[in-house]
Amino acid sequence: MTVLRIVLLIVHFVGLAAILGPFLDQLRARTKRITTAMVWGARAQIVTGLALVGVVYASDHEPDHVKIAFKLVIALAVAGVAEATRKRAEPGAAYWIVGALTLLNIVVAVAWR
Question: Where are the transmembrane segments (predicted)?
Answer without folding.
Answer: 6-25, 37-59, 65-82, 94-112
